[in-house]
């Protein structure tokens, strides 16, 4: 079993179980401006109960000239929404959807 080099705790799936060793959560609205749109798609990435680590949502986000699919991670009755941007997961807040012009195209 692998051990974390920072705290000595066990690694699970390559990540330390100690929350203090994990990198801080990055929020997209802290770094760049973007637009949110609804773009329905067939949800995939979820199990029969609706849970999963990378569930496609009906939203896309424009950062610069490129559109990115919004994904959700859901393992209980609440989900975290995020996009892959510059090779990393960037998280969204509820206000990112409701304070912006979310329009259908």
Structural account:
The structure is a single chain. The protein has 1 helix and 8 strands, in the order E-E-E-E-E-E-E-H-E. The chain has 105 residues and is mainly beta. The chain has one domain (23-104). The protein is globular and about 45 Å long.
Task: Note the main sheet.
Answer: 6 strands, mixed
Percentage of residues in helical conformation:
under 10%
Point out poorly predicted stretches: none
- Quaternary state of this entry equals single chain
How many beta-strand runs?
A: 8
Query: What are the secondary-structure elements, in order, as H or E?
Result: EEEEEEEHE
Number of domains: 1
The tally of helices reads 1
Give me a quick take on this structure.
This protein is mainly β.
List the main descriptive attributes of the protein structure presented here.
105 residues, 6-stranded mixed beta sheet, 5% helix, two-stranded antiparallel sheet, mainly beta
Give the secondary structure arrangement, pairings included.
Layout (H helix, E strand, L loop, with lengths): L10 E2 L2 E2 L18 E4 L13 E12 L2 E9 L4 E7 L2 E4 L2 H5 L4 E2 L1
Parallel strand pairs: 3-8
Antiparallel strand pairs: 1-2, 3-4, 4-5, 5-6, 6-7
């Amino acid at each position: 079993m692998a051990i974390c080099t920072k705290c000595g705790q066990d690694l699970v799936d390559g990540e330390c179980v100690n929350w203090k060793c994990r990198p801080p959560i990055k929020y997209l609205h802290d770094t760049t401006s973007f637009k949110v749109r609804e773009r329905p798609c067939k949800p995939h990435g979820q199990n029969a109960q609706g849970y999963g680590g990378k569930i496609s949502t009906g939203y896309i986000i424009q950062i610069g000239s490129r559109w990115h699919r919004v994904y959700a991670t859901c393992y209980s009755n609440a989900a975290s929404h995020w996009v892959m941007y510059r090779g990393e997961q960037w998280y969204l807040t509820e206000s990112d959807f409701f304070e912006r012009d979310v329009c259908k195209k």
